[in-house]
Amino acid sequence: MIEVHNLTKRFASHTVLENVTCSFVPGKVNLIIGASGSGKTVLMKCIVGLHEPDEGRIIYDGTDFTGLSHKDRKPIQQKIGMLFQSGALFDSMSVKQNVMFPLNMFSNMTYKERVDRIEFCLNRVNLSNVGHLYPAALSGGMKKRVAIARAIANQPKYLFVDEPNSGLDPQTSLVIDHLIKEITEEFNIVTIVNTHDMNTVVESGANILFIHKGKKWFHGTAAELIRSDNKELNDFVFASKMMRSYREKANQ
Ligand SMILES: Nc1ncnc2c1ncn2[C@@H]1O[C@H](COP(=O)(O)OP(=O)(O)OP(=O)(O)O)[C@@H](O)[C@H]1O
Ligand SMILES: [Mg+2]
User: Fold this and answer.
1) pTM of this structure
2) Ligand 2 centre and the CA of 24: distance in Å?
């Protein structure tokens, strides 16, 4: 489990996150939703240690991450897989080399073990035949799947995914959502996904955090979210026509 206690993050005089407290559980896809600029990416970066919070604590399975030196954070960071918003693969590396990269950086595996692991991960995302290709030759959805294979290469206990569906068509988005959910359940990972995608919310929303202007505004399940009378949450969620019809059905 990952716990966030009273997290505040400022950039100069701009308070981006204010006193956010929440927790993220293993084996489930934990979602962070909120308008553009609400602080989702900054929250994720604080949790993985790419930003230092001004106040508050981040606890990984009982260990106070915020209190550790950069060196002592390494064992936890080695268990983190990440897929960032700009999700870039290394263009000058083949698919196999991309997935191999974190293994070269962080694992003590032999070459044979690394090659086997790459094969396993590419198989897992249904891309066993494209290992020799370069990113330029892949579709957007294939690139996302390679990025997922790379993120799980080191068998992470914690997986962070920022906007997995940006730029994808609805069907491909669903494939990516299912894949993230399956991997999370199969390996009992604490997965945190930032998303704008209301399909994702309905499909995988067991634990949803809604951030409004840097503050925790709602924390609950998709069913609770659909029934909530929180105004800002409703304005955000029911801007989507599909979500309004879910609400009407839920209230019948
Ligand atoms: N390194 C930084 N320095 C200064 N301000 C920043 C920095 N990173 C983010 N911000 C500000 O923090 C706020 C929240 O940004 P963030 O990227 O977390 O939004 P978001 O919720 O992820 O939005 P989106 O849905 O568009 O990705 C924004 O006002 C942004 O300008
Ligand atoms: Mg963002």
Assistant:
1) 0.91
2) 18
CA–centroid distance, residue 37 to ligand 1 (Å): 5
Nearest residue (CA) to ligand 1, atom 25 = 36
**Ligand 1 in contact with 131 (CB < 6 A)?**
no
- pLDDT tens digits for 122-168? 998 889 999 999 999 999 889 988 999 999 998 999 999 998 888 88
What is the full DSSP assignment across the chain? Answer: -EEEEEEEEEETTEEEEEEEEEEE-TTEEEEEE--TTSSHHHHHHHHHTSS--SEEEEEETTEESTTS-HHHHHHHHTTEEEE-TT----TTS-HHHHHHHHHHHH----HHHHHHHHHHHHHHTT-TT-TTS-GGGS-HHHHHHHHHHHHHTT--SEEEEE-TTTT--HHHHHHHHHHHHHHHHHTT-EEEEE---HHHHHHH-SEEEEEETTEEEEEE-HHHHHH---HHHHHHHTTSHHHHHHHHHHH-
CATH code 3.40.50.300 region(s) in the chain = 1-79+157-169+180-252
Fold entry, domain 1-79+157-169+180-252: Rossmann fold (3.40.50)
